[in-house]
Amino acid sequence: TRDERDWLERARRSDDEAIRREFGVARDSDGFESEANIFRYLPTVVTVRVTAEANPVEITRVAEAAQRLGAPLTWSVASDAEGSVRAAAVAAAGSGVDAGGSANGTGGGVAVESAAEFGKRLSDGQLLVNGA
Question: Which of 17, 60, 104, 132 is most buried, judging by how many CB atoms fall within 10 Å of its CB?
Answer without folding.
Answer: 60
